[in-house]
Records
---
Amino acid sequence: MARSRGGRHATGPHEEGRPPRPRKRFGQNFLHDTRVIERLVGAIAPEPGQRLVEIGPGLGALTSALLSRVGALDVIELDRDLLPHLEEACAGLGELRVHQADALKFDVCALVEAPETTEGGTGLDTPIEAGDRLRVVGNLPYNISTPLLFHLFEQLGCIRDMHFMLQKEVVERLAAAPGGGAYGRLSVMVQYHCRVEKLFEIGPGAFRPPPKVDSAVVRLTPHAVPPVAVADPAALARVVTDAFGQRRKTLRNALKGCLGAEAIAAAGIDPGERAERLTLAQFAALADALAARTASPPDDSSDEASDTL
């Protein structure tokens, strides 16, 4: 459901004119520190005419700062009770396009106006020019940050970059290198899709209510070309998921459902190694081994032998 600036929603159980209290079920912690907002806007460096999308605008503290710089802004907010206060905070600053929706199900690429095809279609398969791609920002609820990132990875063809406030621990996992305890499935898959830059940390006091953990701002920039070649990205996702699903086990045991020890060794990797020590390139080699194994036709020799009996 999209709406332009100026409409009103029922304010719900809170008093008229007063902001609603943050809701735990939505994982809400509203950003209010003006110094943090200024620093974040400076890191994003929005320019007039750029297509920005904010996920989880809350009461509009960051929204108003962005809207005043770009003139038009799309926001995705699930909590309908916040919308009147969001619109009030942004009144007179530009065109605010509000989409009352679940970000986990929202198609951000639908916001990009693709050229019409000769048959009169939408042209969604047409490559989007770099200057027309979306810049996605947001203070992401901790409880949905990982699934939301994977949801956005499926839409990187229309995204220029992403700036998110996340739990500090999550940002450390995004940027982690092999060999450390923070390195895992999220690290590998994010680094396959994007360049990761941790920008700065934010203390709990910048939010209302203050969370029990520190936060950090991260910039994710989709790779124009993936850092490693992978024959089948789905095979990479399978290998990484299985390998880290039982991270204390060796690859020989963790991957036995998809790759045998011989196949792992043939890919140039020690089957006795653990997932947390593998580089992205090594995971790519395992993924290609799995893709080749899946694409190989079944061995029909036993069937032929039975036919001769």
---
Amino acid sequence: MGEPMPHIRPMVEEDLPTIVKTIGEADAKTSLPKPLHDSLDLRSFLEDRLWIVEISREVVGYILLWRLCEEDRSTKIIAAFNPTITVDGAVTAFKKLLEALFQKRQFQKISFMVHPDHHFFFTVARKLSFFLEGTLRKHLLVNEERYDVALFSQLLNERREEKHAGCCLESLRKQSAFDNVSLIVVRAVLLRLVENDIEVLLLKKSETLPFPGLEEPPGGKIYKHESFSHALKRIVKKETGISITDEVHFLTSFDFSTEKGQRVREYVFRVMPTSLEITIDPKTYESYHWIRLQDLPSTPLHPDLVQVLSTCSPSVSYESQSPAPEHEATLECVHPPTPQLEEALLSGIHLDAYAAKGYSMIEPIGVILRDSSSRIVGGVIADIEYGALFIRRIWIHQDWQRTGWGKRLLTRIEQIAREKGVLFISAHSMDWEDLTLFQQSDYYIESQQTGFANSSRCYFFRKDLNP
């Protein structure tokens, strides 16, 4: 299942002892010097300014709106995590909070304050496409000692560009100029799904070029006044003959120096091809091949690129297929459905969803309520699919209704959902059933459906698990 999904929620006073203990660990990860975090009166920030980060219902850190200016809708944030959280886990937590601040609360600017020696948070800020404005020398006074502070920022109008590029592309160019980068190179990652393996396209350099025989994804330099999207389209078309769409997703970047000492920054993007009919440019490359992601560590690719590719899903993959010839077929009704039919449908649905969006396989979940004689007196059957948990069936014997066991069933299902990183729970109930079971567990009615026999009505309930 991979690394559990972090969740964020507003901090309440009951969290204080846990978070103080968590961040009090000697090797806790703090964005500013640890003495500052140790000295904060967290209780004074409880009013929707302090956000807890949880993984599998365990508190692993916080993100604090430290200096908030309501007038111009801006804030400076700091963060602290326990040693167990990874960079990717922190990035996911930050993304959820940034989405809430920018979209729901309409913040115009968010700044992230990081001590220059704290490389963990520098990496987090880079992955979030924050722009490094600069370093404030001796800006922070903590226990009569002054510290430098690196200031990253992100603007609301920059995030609006994400619908086209998957990241703030303009901020990438600004950052390169700020860092005195001499040359920007873009590289395109093309993926395909073959059975259950994700494969990436690599091109082998011609013997007449520098680094002959080197295998790499398509790439090249970007012109001064050229957009990232246009550069990727031009380069991929020239080197492979493939056309790509406007949809590009930023993956990572890394720097290197040329023999002449020029600083070069390479930005790597995942792109969406319209086909996979490849015609390589013989002046640049002598051959191409597809390699499975799990085999990438054996290649000479840059370690940063190997690492980011290893986590890719084929959400932008394309597998070209020739039109299927017409076939004669028959329709057969089976009642009830056979296991073979269910297996075929689930397998087909899974492969389609995996190829289109990188979704995991649908995961059935069941919780059984037994009495002291081991008889089944209730239970829940649900499916986890596409980031949600759908309760398909829930039943409790009438002798066990209104005893608290129904709520315990829902609580257990919610616990499983949170452990699996589920975003919301969905359920339905007919009007003659006990609607209060869901309502007392903080579900709300999302919609209702009429037209059933005997004038019955079906209610569809929902419970969101994220802020």
